[in-house]
Structures are given as structure tokens and as C-alpha cells.
Design brief:
The protein is an alpha+beta fold and about 170 residues long. It is built from five helices and eight strands; from the N terminus they run βαβββαβββααβα. The protein is globular. The structure holds 7-(2-hydroxyethyl)-8-mercaptoguanine.
Length: about 170
């Protein structure tokens, strides 16, 4: 059996019921080969890139998995599809976005997947939640602690409680 890898994923939503989208997306991941280790709080964040769109809810989750990097990418894309991701403008609104930030110490340059995530070091909506959840990781990867334009909306423990109600007691959250 393949050994476990640890992974850190960024989740974002700015269409529909944003919190429900994050919960449903996380539940999807946990039923498709990922095991929960930890999660950040949920932050309301100003849109980056294409700015004429609604504010996002963003969070980071830390999970372990036996999936290969490309199989993990496939599951992340399936989670987006399961949430009926609608996206007409490349950087525009979406029901759910799932980005792989890190897998262990892997440095990857594939056409489908670059690790560490190439834009994570400049995104407060990633660095704020990641820094809250995993300060050691910020030091390890020399990441800046940017928090501009982000505001804690729901503490990590409340998100975990809501998630437990969806996935049940044996979801190991
Ligand atoms: O790459 C993730 C999608 N995205 C986001 C996001 O998740 N949050 C914020 N605040 N801005 C964003 N711009 C893009 S594209």
C-alpha cells in the first residue's frame, strides 16, 4: 500500500451559499481518499485578480492521503464539478475552487500541477488561513504572513463542528 502523504489545500467560494459550498467541498474530499488532520478558520476575503466580483470565503485544510499528486488533483477537480462550479470568466466567480498548495516537501513542475502552488506566497487569502493553522509551515517555506483584505468569519472549531454534523461521527474530524 502506498504510504500517506500530507497535503494542504486552499478552498474558496464566492457564489451561492459560500459556507455550505466549503462544507460540502470538504465533505466530498473526505469521502474521496483524504483524511482530515486540521483546518483553518473561514475568512471573508476581498477578490484578488478580477476584482469586480463578490467577496470570497476562503479556508485551508490539512489532510493526509495515499493518492498520488495527479489523482489528488483529479479529486479536487471532481469536488469542484460536484459543487456545480460555474465559471464563465477565467478569474471570475465560482461556487468552489480547490487548489493544492503543498504535498509533503514535493517540488513539482508538471503541465497540470506545480508545487508548491506558484501563487500561494503572494495571496493573503491563502497565507492568512495557513499561518493561523500551521505557523511552522510558514517558517519552513519562508512564507510571508500577509493578512490584508481578509477577516475571520468563522473560527476553525465552529467549522469542524458543522462538518462533523455532515459527515457523521466516523468521519474522524
Ligand atoms: O485561486 C482561487 C480563486 N480566487 C480567489 C479566492 O479564492 N479568493 C480571493 N479572495 N480572490 C480570488 N481570486 C481568485 S482567481
Amino acid at each position: 500500500m502506498k504510504p500517506f502523504a500530507q497535503t494542504w489545500l486552499s478552498l474558496g467560494s464566492n457564489l451561492g451559499d459560500r459556507l455550505e459550498n466549503l462544507l460540502a467541498g470538504t465533505a466530498f474530499l473526505l469521502s474521496h481518499g483524504l483524511e482530515w488532520k486540521n483546518g483553518s478558520g473561514v475568512y471573508e476575503t476581498e477578490p484578488v485578480g478580477y476584482t469586480a466580483q463578490p467577496a470570497f470565503l476562503n479556508m485551508v485544510i490539512h489532510a493526509k492521503t495515499r493518492l498520488s499528486p495527479l489523482a489528488l488533483l483529479e479529486v479536487c477537480q471532481q469536488a469542484e464539478k460536484a459543487l456545480l462550479r460555474q465559471r464563465t470568466i477565467r478569474w471570475g466567480p465560482r461556487t468552489l475552487d480547490v487548489d493544492i498548495l503543498l504535498i509533503d516537501d514535493l517540488i513539482l513542475h508538471l503541465s497540470a500541477l506545480t508545487l508548491p502552488h506558484p501563487r500561494m506566497a503572494e495571496r493573503a487569502f491563502v497565507l492568512g488561513p495557513l499561518g493561523e493553522m500551521d505557523p511552522g509551515l510558514m517558517t519552513k517555506w519562508t512564507l510571508p504572513h500577509l493578512t490584508e483584505g481578509i477577516r475571520l468569519q468563522m473560527p476553525a472549531s465552529d467549522f469542524r463542528d458543522r462538518l462533523s454534523r455532515i459527515i457523521g461521527e466516523d468521519g474522524a474530524v
